[in-house]
Amino acid sequence: MRYYISDLHFFHGDMNENMDKRGFASVEDMNEYMIGKWNERVRSNDDVVILGDFSFGKAAETMELLGALKGRKYMIAGNHDRFLNDKKFDTALFKWIADYKEIKDDKRRVILSHYPIFCYKGQFHRDKEGNPKTYMLYGHVHNTFDELLVNKFQSITRSVVRPGFEDPEEGRIPCRMINCFCMFSDYTPLTLDEWIENDAKRRATLPTEF
Question: Are 122 and 134 contacting, i.e. CB atoms less than 8 angstroms apart?
Fold first, then answer.
């Protein structure tokens, strides 16, 4: 099984008081809760793609953390992942580390980036049933005003019909950008299909005008 998650910010106590206001009593409580949620879902032979800002900790404590988390880990680097630049960090703890990656998940292309990419590769493509063939998974913006801007962009893009199509539905752009922010899944890594469902339900409640 393959899972995805973003912006866990292990060891980053400021996430409790500012920005996310996660509400944990301490960074230790936050770490313990997130480890528990991860290991409730992930098994040793599962794959987990981390979409950046995994750990605010130092190299040694981040390596210890990785040893406590089940599964094979894959890393899209985030702007807060300073441990990756520490020569003492064992990069072999991740199967790969990249700034950007394109992979396949059940015959669908998945674009992986810490930062949202508005005009991503393959955003026009649909399968024979009309479903998107490409999904763009991102993090970075958490649950902020920037996420509302991403949502508005998607709403506008999906409403546009490209010139040259006799059938308007064929000319519409699917544009499926999914924010895999950990708080949207109660800190639990989710499959692509689970994120698609989670994202659709959440965006149905978001404003596109503000």
Answer: yes
